[in-house]
Every structure is written in C-alpha cells, then in structure tokens.
Amino acid sequence: MSDASTTEAVEERPVLRRASEFTIEALTNAYNQTRVDYIVPMPLNARRLREYIHNYDIDMERSAVATLDGHILGISMLGVRPGRCWCSRLGVLPIKRRRGTGRMLMTDHIQTARELGVGHMILEVIKDNVPAYNLFTQLGFRSTRVLLILRRPPGPLKDGVGSYRVTFLEPDEIADLLAQRRSVPSWLDEMPSMLHLSDLGALRVELANGGRGWVVYQSSVFQLSHLVLQTEAGDPREVARALVHALHSEYEIQDTNTENLPLDDPHLLGLLDMGYIESFRRIEMRLDL
C-alpha cells in the first residue's frame, strides 16, 4: 500500500509596493473598489485624486499598495509635512479583509514615519467604523477629538440675523488671515492645505453690536467647501450667523460641504442655526513617535 501525500494550498502573503509605481487611473479604480461598502464611500475620479494628492501633500513614494499576483488588494496614502505625517484613504477590498492587509499597510506607514524622524502621525476614522478604529487603537493611536462633516443645501436663508456690514477680501489677504487663526486645524484645513486650493475667497463681517469676524472658503461652480471661521470680537454664534448669511447671500445656488469642524468649535451653533446639518462624524487619532 502506498502512502498518498496531499498538499494544502496556502495563499501567498501580499506584497507591498509604492503608490508611485501605479497610474492614477489604476489607483482610483482600486480605491473605489475598496470603498463600495463603506459607511461613507466617498468615491473619487482620477482628476479628484490628483487634486487630493497635490492639496494634501501626499507622498506617492511613501504611500503603500498591497498586491497579490499583480492585483491590488489594498491602498493607503501618506501625507508628509515637517514634523508630522497623515494617514489617509486606507482601504482593503471587501473580500480580502480580516487577513492583516490593513495592518500591513499601517505598519509600513508607521515605519516610514519613524525613518523620517517626524514627531507624530495623525489620521481620521469615520465614527462607527469599529474594525478600523480597533486596528488603529491596537497600533497605538489615541483618540484626540471628534470632527464634524457639515452640509447646507441651497435654499432660503433663515431670519434672525442682526444688521451687519460685509467686506469681500482680496486673495492676497487670505494667507494673513489664516496665519491669525486661533482654532486647531485638521490636516484638511491646515494652512498648507488651504493655500494649495484653487478659487479661495474670504469675507469679513462687522455687526452693529460690535461683533466681527471672517471666513475663508473655497468656491466652485456648484459647491462651497473648506470653511474656516474666526470671531475677532463678540459672540461666535452671532458672528457665525452673520458670516453664513453674507456667504450664502453671495453664493445662493451652491451646495455647501465643509469637513472636520471640531465638535467643540464655538461657531457650530451659529452654523446649525443657519441650516447646516451634520452629515457624519470622524474621530481624529494621533500616534506619538
């Protein structure tokens, strides 16, 4: 009687490659496939991905792609700025999850950040994305704050705003305004990110009761985004109402979507008063290196 030998098939371990090895189109397609079942899918096209890479200082030589047999399983991008890194767009194909690919991508980022000598790495995870949150916690990240994504559809402005005077500011004044900012920005609205954006605008309001403040924003044909508000004097809620009233009186037909407003931002109540609604929340996390 002869012995029969059997060989158990073992799936190969994914290989990590640099994002710079792939075309933007290939990365876009892979990214969208990893997000089809996400709580908030946030699909991209090739043009928007190029803008994303430029606006947020994504280092394609240090961003990672996990492949198996030449096929992309997962992707994660790494933004690099002096003293800090930012992990973004981490995604793994749904049928390939729970196999360590996400951990492999994140471990690669952490090692890269250490080699760069930066002080910390940050990321944001959508609230209620428990698997991702647990992974980041296991890797040593800690929650720092809750960030809101807000939307205001076009529509009539609400009443209840006192009289104010509005001044639209010149583009060359925007950098000076952002340099005066007192709130703590996220990566998406740090000064480098904001100054990378096209079509930035700004306005200042002065209320009859002495309140005053400014807002910087990005304006496109169909949308307003990247709102940064600051109160210079007075009640931030009142100032925010006047800023929003002035903004949407000028841009009546644009939809508005602004990301990463801290939950404790003093302007939040004013935005809600004027028709802004919460789309979803992110948890900002940080890893000190």
Write up this protein:
It is a single chain. This protein has 289 residues and is α+β, with helices and mostly antiparallel strands. It has two domains: 15-118, Gcn5-related N-acetyltransferase (GNAT) (Aminopeptidase), CATH 3.40.630; 150-281, 3-Layer(aba) Sandwich (Aminopeptidase). 27% of the residues lie in helices and 34% in strands. The protein has helices spanning 24-34, 46-55, 101-116, 130-138, 174-179, 191-196, 236-250, 268-273, and strands at residues 15-18, 64-68, 71-81, 84-92, 120-126, 142-152, 164-168, 200-207, 212-219, 223-233, 255-262, 277-288. A twelve-stranded mixed beta sheet has the order 1-2-3-4-5-12-6-11-10-9-8-7. A hairpin with a 4-residue loop joins strand 8 and strand 9. Mean pLDDT is 93; it is low at 1-10.
Write the layout of secondary structure elements.
Elements lengths: L14 E4 L5 H11 L11 H10 L8 E5 L2 E11 L2 E9 L8 H16 L3 E7 L3 H9 L3 E11 L11 E5 L5 H6 L11 H6 L3 E8 L4 E8 L3 E11 L2 H15 L4 E8 L5 H6 L3 E12 L1
Parallel strand pairs: 4-5, 10-11
Antiparallel strand pairs: 1-2, 2-3, 3-4, 5-12, 6-11, 6-12, 7-8, 8-9, 9-10
Short account of what is shown:
The chain is built from eight helices and twelve strands. It is 27% helix and 34% strand.
What would the keywords be for this entry?
elongated; Aminopeptidase; 2 domains; alpha+beta; about 290 residues
